[in-house]
Amino acid sequence: MAVVDVHRFAESITCHAWSPDHSMVAFCPNNNEVHIYKSSQDQWERLHVLEKHDQIVSGIDWSSKSNKIVTVSHDRNSYVWSLEGGEWVPTLVILRLNRAALCVQWSPKENKFAVGSGAKTVCICYYEQENNWWVSKLIRKRHESSVTNVAWHPNNILLATTSTDGKCRVFSTFIKGVDTKDPKAGSPAESKFGEQILQLDLSYSWAFGVKWSPSGNTLAYVGHSSMIYFVDDVGPSPLAQSVAFRDLPLRDVLFISEKMVIGVGYDSNPMVFAADDTGIWSFIRYIGEKKEESSGSSYSSQFSEAFTKFYGQSKATTANEASESSKSRGGVHDNCINSILPLSKAGSPKVMRFSTAGLDGKIAIWNLENMEEELGHQF
């Protein structure tokens, strides 16, 4: 089993983030608070409770270099928290939103962070030294619905977003005085702020988690129709692939290498996707499930099985039976997994440890070391 540690912190967890040394975790227990716990001798001790928001905290990110925490909430506000004298001190960020803030992420250089919202806008926030405050610039009139997730490209300029309008988009976030121009003339990084580099219409349902590969050459995002999408050569002529699977939809994804992705979601168990030598992506297996001797049943047999389950004797399948099915594959979570985070140094080409958090209130730590043979693929 790849699970190293599992702990239930609350009845439900909406989001989580780790300190730079991964010794502390911050999460929202499905309310307006952020709890910070520290691991000590196989025990978790609560150190701080951050209380400033008025509604559910929907996004948290903890910077690995500056040791600052940024939080966003349905109350339409964002705070940047700094540790001063053993206490976390908040600084309000003016987002100028009229709908809930839904997600947040620091940029790789940590001089900016992006906030997705229910107002169909993305806020790019940066610090103004002259005025000693955080300000935001908005990317407007591009999304047709709520922005569910954001992901920074390693170049610190390009930003990918997903939305409930079913589209994935890539924007330039170049801000004069904050960013430096890319030495490659004519690169997308030299585009003006808010310019749309790419729009992907691959999904016909809500789109959720989005991530870049370590090199920034591949983009992956998921749809609510039990599909995951991979895009290479992001630009005027992208190469896109769609991978469908027969289980419940995903909510978030994580590249653990250039050729392998972990997806998590409503099936309560991490799923492994990998690319072969020709660059074709496919679903491999669930983490923790025993590897089958055969390569899997054919599409027709899968369809027959689904048809039988829908119309046959198992017509009254309950949530408990679905949970038992997940447990039979080695499931650790009892409810939807809503986030997955790497537990490795920023910019690392491979991620051997990661964490997952879910609506069951659990945070699980996974270790993939020495699992290449079990998974049947090299990282």
TrEMBL record:
Cellular component (GO) terms are: Arp2/3 protein complex
Mind telling me which Pfam families this protein's record contains? Answer: WD40
* Matches recorded under PANTHER family: ACTIN-RELATED PROTEIN 2/3 COMPLEX SUBUNIT 1, ACTIN-RELATED PROTEIN 2_3 COMPLEX SUBUNIT
Which species? Eruca vesicaria subsp. sativa
Stated name of the protein: Actin-related protein 2/3 complex subunit
| InterPro entries, per database record | ARPC1, WD40/YVTN_repeat-like_dom_sf, WD40_repeat_dom_sf, WD40_rpt
Q: Which residues cross the membrane?
A: none
Q: Which SMART domains match?
A: WD40 (SM00320)
| Gene Ontology MF annotations | actin binding
Annotated WD repeats reside at 50-91, 140-172
